Amino acid sequence: MSFRTLLALTLLGLAVLVVLQILRPERAAGSGPVAGFDLDDPSVVERGAYLALAGNCASCHRAPDGASMAGGLAFETPFGTIHATNITPDPETGIGRWTDRDFLDAMRHGVRPNGDYLYPVFPYTAFTKVTDEDVAAIFAYLRSLPPVRRQVPENDLAFPFAIRSLMAFWNALFFEAGAFEADPAQPEAWNRGAYLVESLAHCSACHSPRNLLGAEQQGLAFSGGTYLDRVPGGAHRPWSAPNLTASDRGLGLWSREDLAAYLKHGRNGFLESFGPMNEVIMNSTRHLSGADIDAMALYLVGLPAIDEADGAAPEERILGRGRTVYNLHCGTCHLPTGEGDPEMAPRLNAGSLVVQSEDPASMINAILYGPEPPEPPLPPKWRHPMEEFQYLLDDEEIAAVATYVRRSWGNAAGVVTAEQVARQR
After folding, report:
1. DSSP code, position 238
2. Which of 63, 76, 206, 302 has its C-alpha lying 20 to 30 A from 121's C-alpha?
3. Chain segment 32-79, per-residue pLDDT in tens
4. Average pLDDT over residues 292-315
């Protein structure tokens, strides 16, 4: 290596260190208790338990063996595998030595007590909006849990994403810290719904598209997203989260009452929960008060429409083949009209956000693997659960029937290809 090359690399390294110092993580100001109340007060702990439900902490921080909040669950991302942390009060492997200000730093600024950056798989980009009082209450609840000594596996990230200090640049580009501020022009219920949706429930984390660096595209917030999650059998495959704006192919198809019923009970007149939404509903939203569910529904149904791209019109040959497959395997339960039947199957026409989604990943998963029911199971509704078709139909047949459903009975979504189906197998 020449002297000039060595000098250039040294200067580059010094420049990076200077920039990292400039972009050093923010920390919570002050030194006393965050909210000024007793963290051992049973009423504070109870409040924190409710808020932890709203944040769906248990779904992500559960251990593979089922130990609550003990971490270890693997998240597959385009950048590698990240494991959820242990947030029980174990002093060695959990957060037992954290203070409430350490916890506020993690929630508000995405920073560990030692100054290391967190990765946004932990959605601090949404949790930053949680108020100081609610952060302290959640911490009080976590402190009250039995400590579980469990060292979670190391993350397995590709270079250079394993270098946590580089998150300084990501945060500078894509993250703005700060608690939620109510809109005085809106009613109290709307602001409560906005607070829950935008912060604790972090709905945009799944329901927004992301850029190449994994940041949510703010201009397209809530218009639908794609992410990796498990399918029946344990493999990770892409899932598509529907458009939650007032688009006529998104949440504009549902009423406020439809949405509230789905969040509270896991079903409404259009569908029953399946896939990743099972954990959201069963571990979180069904436990929320009726007032909070109504507030979330009020806020969500009022999101301005962001319309999805029009799907290309399929060839008549594809529609014909899809109609044949549908009549053979689907029409008995979903009816030839796509109207569905109260005892047999949900409707597929004018109201299924999964069918209308620009990305057909979730619909393909439902056809391939069958809609995985919630756990614990909901009261029986359908006479027979939908079977899996991964061994009955080939990629072209599934692509054809999915295309037919997405272009029939008023549906206006695009063509599904055999290649898209193959990626989901």
Report:
1. E
2. 302
3. 667 788 899 999 999 999 999 999 999 999 988 888 999 999 999 999
4. 92
What is the per-residue pLDDT across 411-420, written as a single tens digit (0 to 9) for each? 989 999 999 9
Rounded Cα–Cα distance for residues 361 and 216 (Å): 19
Helix axis angle for 3-22 and 167-174, nearest 10°, is 50
Residue 127 · residue 202 · CB < 8 Å: yes
Cα–chain center distance at 103:
22
CA of residue 229 relative to chain centroid, distance: 10
> CA–CA separation, 357 vs 294, rounded Å?
24
Quick one: 417 exposed, middle or buried, by C-beta within 10 A (0-12, 13-18, 19+)? Answer: middle
Residue with tokens 């990629």: 395
Region for residue 233 given its phi and psi (left: phi exceeds 0; alpha: psi -120 to 50; beta: otherwise) = left
Q: Which amino acid is at 8?
A: A
- Residue 20's pLDDT band, with cuts at 50, 70 and 90, is very low
Find the helix or strand (DSSP H, E) in which 168 lies: helix 167-174
